[in-house]
């Protein structure tokens, strides 16, 4: 019986922490309503999580109501993980708080492809450098990595990241061995889909197709009945390798071209004459261009993207499609036109209610998704780990 009681307590601790993590600051009274637990139990759970370093409490805002106001419970700003997104042209690293805010972010551009060993070195040195300037109360709990490639579900090994030239890399253990931190590794687009579903443009939507456009190509993630779909080996959602028919013979690539060969960040960079750029810089360059060649290239890519999206609509019948990265840049000039292009090539019933939106988390989506993976084991058993000195 003591083991059963302890199990119930662990689940209740996880419920309280999960609510504050997902919904933001809540009063004790709101936690009581959400969980159905009594006030004394909530007070005990909040006290334990505060002692463990996860939560803080503050006086309630004046509400002008009679009666004793309930203290507000919030995630501690000192609890962080390290989120990483290696790409072919840069590695983005962020320190993400448990409330999804990003305390520090760096985009470190690389010359040539970065190797797994160099990636581990870069992560380790960045953490060491950041720690020197963090307050003594800061607690880095774990590392999450969003990789543009196939990540094996059973152990998080990078099976292949073709654009990076990685194959069969036990990336998580390599990072853990160097940093001493538990590490979660997953596909970048899968993590982007989860982040947008929990906190962004697909929040509250049960059936979602997410496409991520990055330097390595196009990946995707699926939410079906409110749950991420990973496939038998964790490789579901590789939309970039689909081969949509190119409608016009003068558009190049032929019918055998993969989606990510034709709808391409590299082609957009070439069109505006940039060697490399972050998402915001590329979007600004495209939006500000009046060059007929740039306008034509964006229109060409939108047409091919619409064909690929119509195939997804016919197969999966989502209620929402979310586009991230450079795909959001393609959609932004005329979202309604893109919806029309998709509906014109879809079965009428499947496309009738589909909604296409750009990623609300913008350039933060992959870091927040990686952080969600990093925090997940700790959120399920909060008192397994405690802040240093607690």
Automatic annotation (TrEMBL):
InterPro entries: ATPase_NBD, HTH_MarR-typ, ROK, WH-like_DNA-bd_sf, WH_DNA-bd_sf. Residues 14-65 form the HTH marR-type domain. It comes from the Bacteria. It holds the Pfam family MarR_2. Belongs to the ROK (NagC/XylR) family. This is ROK family transcriptional regulator. It comes from Microbacterium sediminicola.
